[in-house]
Amino acid sequence: MRTTVPALTRRRFLTATAVTGAAALAVVGATTVPWEDLFASAGDLDPNAGVLVVVTLYGGNDGLNTVVPASDPAYQKARPELAYRAQDVLDVGEGIGLNPAMTGLKGLWDSGESLTIVRGVGYPEPDHSHFRSMAIWQTASPTSPNGAGWLGRWLDAVSDGSAADPLRALSTETVLPPLLVGADRAGSTVAPGTLDLPRGALGRAVAGFAAPDPTDDPWRAKAAASIGHLGTLRAAVDPAIEGGTVKPAVAKTGGKGGDLGHQLDLIAGLVEARVPTRVYSASLGGFDTHADERGTQERLLGQLDAALTGFVQRLGGSDAGRQVTVLVYSEFGRRVQANASEGTDHGTASPVLLLGAGMRGGFTGQQPSLTDLYAGDLRAHVDFRDVYASLVDKVLGADPDRVVPGHPGGTFAL
């Protein structure tokens, strides 16, 4: 007997969790950033400022089949058809392995840096509703998840009314996620795609207008600089550059990163162009695996792996890229016990991934017990608000108590 559930999409999540956010957007006027604003800001990123990229996995990713306790007999007993054997997973120590689709992330793990796995992350009195749980994660408010987004509060705190305000936080999603909506300020959206400029002889002629000329008056010099910025940004965000060759760093995903790969390629280009954005949001959906989980999750984790690995490796080649930290989370994990449809139902605690050149690497947090359960679910040992607080403090350089009020613990080493 298969479990039937409504189709869940990224848009449904964003719309259903943005009740207050929609009202706030009418006030603060969230917009799609035009390309001319982006290229005009190229080069403005503070070289000492951290950049945070938030990747949301919509649907409730099964953490137990992502960071797999394959050597635990309780895991094998709870999932006789769905469990991975120890020899099937990618060993990361302590009887745990990564899903076999995550070969790139295994390479980052083996490097001893770039990847940190925070185990057993959740919140008190967990909710199995996709929409309420996602609202809780996006607002960092477990008891009243209907206010400003947690990074929206950061926008409110750092806003100075300058021209950089609309560029401080960008989403590659068509609907602005609630996490970027504050009481007074909101992030903007920028759609992945190609920045269309002339190529060949005409393109070279246009590029020639960007050449500096000591006889230019101030307005001609500014126009020439703008053309130069546009070319720099096009080369950064468009895989195809002069002569039809493909930038090797962009080609790392080989198309396997899917939509998320395209989103992260765009973000990488903007970072390399030193656009002054401090927070980016991207997402991948489809993780609501009530039935036939193995194939679906492996396909999605393969896309996640290719997109993240190519992104981290690409950014490791530039000073701006080494300013980036990536947070990967889902609204909840899945039940320990498999269901009758070779899938899993809505659960609670799940691992969070942190990536970037500044990561210390390794495990953080306690591995949840598979026998000491809370109503059949994993017990959380790390409150997600403490993860947020650490990122606000260490990456964004802001006061975590203002951005994540009520976070129960301190910050921890990243």
Descriptive notes:
- With 414 residues, the protein is an alpha/beta fold.
- It has one domain: Alkaline Phosphatase, subunit A.
- Helix content is 35%, strand content 13%.
- It has 14 helices and 12 strands.
- The protein has helices spanning 10-16, 19-28, 35-41, 73-78, 103-110, 130-139, 150-158, 200-208, 218-237, 248-251, 258-272, 293-315, 384-394, 400-403, and strands spanning 51-57, 67-68, 90-93, 96-98, 115-122, 169-171, 188-189, 279-284, 324-330, 350-356, 362-364, 382-383.
- Strands 1, 5, 6, 7, 8, 9, 10, 11 and 12 form a 9-stranded mixed β-sheet that branches.
- Strand 3 (90-93) and strand 4 (96-98) form a beta hairpin.
- Helix 3 crosses helix 9, helix 5 crosses helix 12 and helix 9 runs antiparallel to helix 11.
- The longest helix has 23 residues, at 293-315.
- The termini are far apart.
- Residues 1-9, 11-29 and 239-254 have low confidence and may be disordered.
- Residues 1-18 form the signal peptide.
- InterPro entries: DUF1501, TAT_signal.
- This is DUF1501 domain-containing protein.
- Keywords: Signal.
Structurally, the number of domains stands at 1
Distance between the termini: 44 Å
CATH class value: Alpha Beta
Low-confidence stretches: 1-9, 11-29, 239-254
Helix content: 25-40%
What do we call the CATH topology? Alkaline Phosphatase, subunit A
Strand runs, count = 12
Which shape, going by the Cα principal axes? globular
Averaging pLDDT over every residue, what do you get?
83
Order of helices and strands: HHHEEHEEHEHHEEHHHHEHEEEEHH
CATH architecture: 3-Layer(aba) Sandwich
Largest sheet: 9 strands, mixed
What fraction strand? Answer: 5-15%
Q: How many separate helices? A: 14
Structure classification: alpha/beta
Give the radius of gyration: 22 Å
Protein name: DUF1501 domain-containing protein
Organism: Actinomycetospora endophytica
Keywords: Signal
InterPro entries: DUF1501 (IPR010869), TAT_signal (IPR006311)
